[in-house]
Amino acid sequence: MLLGLLLATGAPQPAGGQQRLVPESREQIRLSFAPVVRRAAPAVVSITSRKFVEVTADPFAADPFFRFFFREFGPPARRERRARTSLGSGVIVRGDGLVVTNNHVVADADSITVVLGDKREFEARILMQDEDADLAFLRLEDAPDDLPVLPLGDSDSLETGDLVLAIGNPFGIGQTVTSGIISAAARTPPGGKGAVSFLQTDAAINPGNSGGALVDLGGTLVGINTAIFTRGGGSIGIGFAIPANLVKARLLALERGEDFVPPWLGVEVRGVDAALAEALGLDRPRGVVVERVHPASAAARAGIRPGEVILAVDGFAVGDPAGLNTRLALRAPGERALLDLWRRGRERRVTVVLTPPPEEPPRDVTLLRGRHPLDGARVANLSPALAQELGFDPFARGVVVLEIARRGFARRLGLRPGDRILAIDGREIAEVRELERVLAEPRRRYDITIGRGDRRFTLTVG
User: Fold this and answer.
1) 432 near 440, Cβ under 8 Å?
2) Is the torsion defined by CA of 100, 104, 105, 110 positive or negative?
3) Which positions are catalytic?
4) What is the rounded distance in angstroms from the CA atom of residue 450 to the CA atom of residue 434?
């Protein structure tokens, strides 16, 4: 009442000239999100995924003494097949029963059950998975014609401060709606892999909300809720959602019948801090600086050089490597992207034709056999394409171990899938054929240099 009196008597207005008014009618007092929820909630589903595992049924299995006693003197421990259950949420995005959810909700599942808001249940199967973006698409079996659908919105139109609603099935208690705002439009979660950037929201998201909907006040899907930052397991107002435009890009590949392959720019970048911005002549920290350019990449063909700063992609500013990956992931291989670059006090714009990572050199998968320490190892040439499949540095080169046969000296040597054969007797190994030639040479002793993650060590056999 006091605020209404001050406004009516011409008291000073808030800065910016935006007038604040008290409600003047019963209808204004009863303003509600209910119409948005009525439109959006029916298309948000609950997902139960089950994975069957074998466990020891012995009640004394946890006790070291009994475990030792029965292993040595008793009958074999009985094994049982049990189901491990994961609960999450999903969103129906197409009338033929296509559901989008988080990959971590359904990964490695043996069976998936989807429950609609009206309690109807359907079995579902996985059509596409993207581990990097944490997205999966499911198809409902025997889907009816009257399924509710939530249309995809434009996540690029969101601004910090926009109102949003989160809809999902937290803790399995049933469909729940929470409200909040967009806290940041492009944010990499603490401890995240940096594969893509997310929408950040303070709408309450809890375990079970994963794969649920983040909707705007127009009732369109703007994000897929995927993660929270928490210290105790519950929401503290820092949640993350996959942008809807990233879902659109994956959906387009699915509709084309293609396996989604992210376009590969072929650069190694890092964020720009205040000290680096000053050294580069930037007015403030922004963009990502290019540290390496792969010679067979789209970036190299476009003339991008180490030391340049990528400021924006298609007019959208990028602030970290995940932000760059996200903007590129909205494009399909073969499409063009406009990159704004900075170098030595000048800006320039280049057009990049995006391509998938190349299979160069060809992987040449080979099972090594013979009287040598690598007998039983299946190996291949590392290329940017294979490196991306394995989660390796795309700049890595050489020969990588894919599998180890159950019988063969390589298993006794302790080799693991993912190991790289770097050198033998100090001789650098670049390709599989060269490795075969070296192994065919008679010798009594082998000094094999192995790369394993960030480590490098030498095994001596002789």
Assistant:
1) no
2) positive
3) 104, 134, 210
4) 16
Q: Tell me what the mean pLDDT of segment 104-131 comes to.
A: 93
Q: What is the pLDDT of residues 359-401, one digit of tens each?
A: 999 999 999 999 999 999 999 999 999 998 898 888 988 999 9
Three-state secondary structure string covering the chain: CHHHHHHHCCCCCCCCCCCCCCCCCHHHHCCCCHHHHHHHHHHEEEEEEEEEEEEECCCCCCCHHHHHHHHHHCCCCCEEEEEEEEEEEEEEEECCCEEEECHHHHCCCCEEEEECCCCCEEEEEEEEEECCCCEEEEEECCCCCCCCCCCECCHHHCCCCCEEEEEECHHHCCCEEEEEEEEEEEECCCCCCCCCCEEEECCCCCCCCCCCEEEECCCCEEEEEEEECCCCCCCCCCEEEEEHHHHHHHHHHHHCCCCCCCCECCEEEEECCHHHHHHHCCCCCCCEEEEEECCCCHHHHCCCCCCCEEEEECCEECCCHHHHHHHHHCCCCCCEEEEEEEECCEEEEEEEECECCCCCCCCCCEECCCCCCCCCEEEEECCHHHHHHHCCCCCCCCEEEEEECCCCHHHHHCCCCCCEEEEECCEECCCHHHHHHHHHCCCCCEEEEEEECCEEEEEEEC
Mean pLDDT, residues 91-102: 96
Residue 298: CB atoms within 10 A of its CB come to 25
The pLDDT value recorded for residue 60 is 52
d(CA 94, CA 283): 46
Residues 446, 462: Cα–Cα separation, whole Å: 6
Domains and CATH numbers, the chain: 42-140 (2.40.10.10), 155-255 (2.40.10.10), 267-353 (2.30.42.10), 366-461 (2.30.42.10)
**pLDDT mean over 238-261:** 89
